[in-house]
Amino acid sequence: YLFRPFSFSPNPRLFALLIGIDFYQNVRSLRSAAADAFAFKEILENHFGVPSNQIQTLLNKSASRSAILDAFRSFEDDSRIQKGDPIFIFYAGHGSEVSITANSSDSKIQALVPQNYSAEPGKEIPAIPDRTIGALLSKIADAKGDNITVILDCCHAASGTRGSEGDDSGVRSVKLTPTPIDHFVDREIWEGGRSIAIAPNFQHAGLRSHILIAACSSSETSREANGHGLFSSALLRLLRTCSPETLKYSEVLKHMDAIPGQNPQCEGVNQSRTLFNSKVVAPTRVCFDVTVDEQGKLVVSAGAVHGIAQDAEFTVFKNIESIYENPLGVFLVDTLSTFSATLQPSLDGTTVIPDGTAVALQTKAGKKEDMRLYIPPDENAAPCYEAWEFLMQGKRDFQNIALVDAPEDAHVELFLEDDNVVFIYRDKIITQHGLSRVFFEVKPLVHELSRALKSIAHFFWKLELNNNNPEVMSSIDFEFHRLGQPEFQYDDISNARAMAPIGPNLHKSGIIDFVVDDEPYGIRLVNNSGYDFYPYLFYFDNSDLSIAPYYESPSSGSYALDVPLKAHGGTLTIGYGTGGASPFSYYLRYPQTIDVGFLKLFLSTKPIDLSNISQSTPFEDSRGSVDVSKNLGDIWGTILIPVIQRRDPPNTETHCIQCGSISAKSLDLQQRTVIHDLEYKAEMLEKDLNILRQTAADVKRAHEEEVSTLKSKLEAQEEENRKLIRLTDTKANKRQGELQLQRRESFGSNHVGERSTPTTSPSKKRSWLLRVKRLIHLHWI
């Protein structure tokens, strides 16, 4: 359990969607789903301090299919949500299992049932398939980060849902009308821009976009009683008594009250995070549960598989809330087992044996292998010695770091170069593959050095935590493939081009060696043993000292847990198929031409909490249902696989022992920098040139299309103008003819009038003569 003080820190940056449906239009109603959604709204507002305008609530009629999909989409488009802000999604209602229209033996998908679900012909409103939810969550994660928590208080499937009507416990699952769901429903959502099939089954342990906490296992039913869902009630009680800052996702179910008949599951690769926090918690200061056995001895739930060593020291407290009060005592590991250890009181001080259960904080490492460090005897290296002494004096950040006299005896050598401290690898497990330097450097400051040294010690501690059990190692097939979208290969459920292995297995002779090409990669595990295994896969990055989880089996505390990798040929795919995780891609940091990491696979016959293995790089500012009671034996093992990533295929050139860059014999950094700079610029120029060529082709094509369109419009306009001119000419000719006819008629009328009046009156003649004389007079004037 994460060792942190209990404190309440409201999180106004959290954004939530709460869905609760009791009254359905066409299926059996529930009693308490809306009440659960409202209870989560109350705890978010009043306990966590989340503003009401950051909480979307869809209850009953408002939770239609379109409203639910729109609410999911709104997270992606909400400008208030910054990258990494926590997003919380809760659903209480019916879950179901529906058929699809594919001719497949595995043609069932899981679905959430909206309030207006209908199977009536002509008025169909389908359930919301798991692939749709998965695609929406993936898009939200791309836009806003993967700090997403999804809580589902519903059943995974429709099996065993017919309880008696008089039963006080309702079942949150419904058997829908056996009408196959349209193969292409929501295709615009799940197909996306890359047309890569979304892995079906949104409750996968391997998922990377979000953490899922489900109310029950895949073969069970989620029930409600006394006004609330049994699972929601237990989770709400926990959240009211424990701060999210003290709860890791992997620990949530361990501290929840037991639920008869239900075994909740917590799934996702980021279980080492605290609730609503995207940071990986520090790997130190972890607490473990303590119980008292029949002989009255204390038993701590941590053993060899967790890296516990003989004589390790634990300080025991009554519970996590009393972690800053007086402890019950200090104990040492007496007997070490695979998954647990018995404790005996330390000789120092008094001890009190707790009643029932307690928690233990590891305070000393015990007799484990030291991380060997070499610091040159140089006065400029004084900060390095000070940082080492600072770590050795610490009580909580216990580290086994031993100074050695010669660099060849060390795991790591500190080397001063250009006013920076460089970390040189001396351990052959790394150097034999061509990398001998941590990519990043630090200033010779005590706080920066101590942080880096602590990460190095943790890195080697977990890297060297091995159990080369031949029974395990020989029974597991580990395949590493490049992924692609083979033509004519489609996912049975999404009908999109499916990601699948292409080419050979790159894991050969215990090593993965390939040229980095920005392509996706995936992993396939095959269990040929007679034991069910819980796998945990981590990637150790030697260049930045980070340890990233690739896959973690679901956690369920004391609840029963579904087995991910079953015996006798069971398979698990990671990065493609139904495994739920996104594909992996690799890159080289400039100016590296080679990088080496390690894939480390832990396999156990029991679920274990390995969330304290992960760690962020210290060089960044932002760090931070099966029968489990059956005794199959405490079996565990590890498989360590080097992953060599190259910019170019292997050749006769050697690699720089400092950074892995190609060099003949010289370590002259300036010369290497110039060469790599030119190579990098040439590569970038070639990429830019290709982009410009493509852009020019696109512009030319668009211009030609525009010219063709304008030419067509111009020709049409000219034809219209010609028609208008012809019409105008016709009208003008007609009008001219009419005017000529009018003039002829007018002239003929005047002529006839003159002949009919042969004489003019004397008065008119005089008047006419006077006007003529006046005009002549004016003319002369």
From TrEMBL:
Organism encoding this protein: Psilocybe cyanescens
Name of this chain's protein: Peptidase C14 caspase domain-containing protein
Signal peptide span: none
Stated family: Belongs to the peptidase C14B family.
Domain Peptidase C14 caspase positions: 15-257
One record GO biological process: apoptotic process
Span list, region Disordered: 735-765
GO MF terms, alphabetically ordered: cysteine-type endopeptidase activity
Biased amino acid composition, Basic and acidic residues: 735-746
